[in-house]
From TrEMBL, chain A:
Cofactor binding description: Binds 1 zinc ion per subunit.
GO biological process: proteolysis involved in protein catabolic process
Acyltransferase keyword on record: no
Any Gene Ontology CC annotation: membrane
UniProt keyword Protease present: yes
Annotated InterPro entries: Mito/Outer_Membr_Metalloprot, Peptidase_M48
Protein name according to UniProt: Peptidase M48
Keywords for this protein: Hydrolase, Metal-binding, Metalloprotease, Protease, Zinc
Domain annotation Peptidase M48: ranges: 91-278
Cofactor: Zn(2+)
Signal peptide range: none
PANTHER family: METALLOENDOPEPTIDASE OMA1 (PTHR22726), METALLOENDOPEPTIDASE OMA1, MITOCHONDRIAL (PTHR22726:SF1)
Species for this entry: Thioalkalivibrio halophilus
Amino acid sequence: MRVRNGSCLLLPVFLVLSLALLAGCRGVASVGAELGTRTGVLDARQAESLRQTGELAERSMEDFTPEQEYFIGRAVAARVLEDYAVLDDPAAQAYLNNLGGVLALHSERPSLYQGYSFRLLDSDELNAFATPGGHIFITRGMARLAQTEDELAAILAHEIAHVQERHGLQAIRSSRVTAALTSAALTGAQLAGDDDLRELTDIFEDSIDDITRTLFVNGYSREFEREADDGAVAILERTGYRPEALSRVLERMDDEWDPQGPGFARTHPSPSSRIAELGLEPADSRSEARAERFSRFRAAL
Amino acid sequence: MLRIRTLPVLFLVLAVAGAGSVALAFERGDPGDVAVRSAELREAPGHLTAIRGHLDYGTRVEVRDRREGFLRVRSEAGEEGWLHPSALSRDPVILTGDGDDVERDADRDEIALAGRGFNEEVEERYRSERGLSFAPVDRMEAGGADPEDLRAFLEQGELHLPGGE
């Protein structure tokens, strides 16, 4: 990505803003500018620079529209599907879409720009992903860990909670403060020509890389994983599944836990620590109504 | 390097940053913009109730009523029905495609800022530069569950119907 703004005047401002933006509070730069002027720390020009820079940067951080979120999500989904094949079993895919669909209806964010969609990936790896656009993936290996529909629901509900909490976009936010402050948007460039489209595409690519790196390599923070587990419990309860199924399936993940191997172990806290934080004793589903259709699904794995 | 006299600002800014922001629920009379590609306007509160129409992304509506976690809204063109609050944005939705509707809502800088202008044009360039296929994503999105299938799945599994039903 090209950097157009080279003003050294903004160095202290940049540091202030970086910290303020990491704190995630809109309007902080304006308040900082006003306070800086009043206390004589900043002159009028510096204060205005802080205010303008802050407004631009804060908006770029906070104001991804649902449509932008969707296009970012689509590109992340394309990257996932570049690396993984989809399991060729329409009945299993339909079951997964129905299960994920009813869980999403009970989430705090049932309406997305393009809605939720779910795919079973033909891989023995233990993994599951969600994009900011509501594309949710689970590998055959991870799905096979679940012994009941409630346990499979718990895995999907965790991914839906990541979407609900907009964790994917925050992977961009936390790692791209510098880019946000030096982007085409900051310089107020007219986005009319090929150069501008190229610059936007570069920013887009960097954003997708941030998210895929988080999904595949670094993982979300422990706090985000805890939020996703808490969100999953709420979704399971509202839908009518046993929330203890999350602890049960985490227990099964713990048996397969290999931090050196591929998949979720590289990107998630240990299942045992997540069970401890959940505080829910693992328990099995007793539903016969769901047992038959789940066994049909499981036979396809 | 950061000069000593800038530190008070740093301190003050961080102190203010701790305040955070709180999202407020929609109230009767509030305006909102449709935040999904095609919002389903329903006859009654609920995700699985009958659909009476659709509103496009960015359509401005007014909230007329609230019940059972849903909002009754009316568009400027007079279309009325129930939708879930997550289909509505309190912030004005700035469109990023081509055409007059974009100019209606924002100048070009605002469009860039709203979301860096990520749209189909950017996706197309990204796709061609990377040699990446979006066809599997299109198929994935097209394969979503039918509302009647969801209702049957819930009932057969002795699960709860979503709010309002």
